[in-house]
Write a structure and sequence with these properties.
The protein is mostly helical. The chain contains 8 helices and 5 strands; from the N terminus they run E-H-H-E-H-H-E-E-E-H-H-H-H.
Amino acid sequence: MREHTDPQALRALAHPLRMKLLQELALRGPATATELAERVGDTAPNCSWHLRQLAKYGYVEDAPGGQGRRRPWRFVPAGNRWGTPGEPPEVTAAGDAVSEVMLQYEVGELRSWRERRGKHDAEWRQAAFFDQSVTWLTPDELDEIGAKVQEMWLRHLDRLADPALRPDNARPIRLLAWGIPAEH
């Protein structure tokens, strides 16, 4: 788990193209900047620059098997955490920027799923879920729920880096949850 205290490392994530690049590498494996540019609809030089920025902070790294323009990149799987009490304001601001980019990206993915879900077989339509709830919790109870959710997600993180660990019927699944105090 990366515990972010460097606002620059957080800001490296706060860009929509970088989110797309990370997703492509995480879901489809190592690729060159040229291959990624074709997938995300951008230019190879621009993707290359953004990949170097992500590499600077350890989000991606060189993959074996190439050099120069044919250099493949790979995703470095790790959870990311920020937003600890008492952190400096610049870390809070950078974390807020990353959170906003991630939220917009994930809401777009949810909308896309809802538009195309009818094209998937019944097993996947049944398994997919969208839940919403409001309840009364203490800070300790909310913290416990958050820790359990994170533990469940992180137990499968190794499948991003090693395709051999993926069960036959496994697909990439987007998971998003939040637990925030409601106004009352």
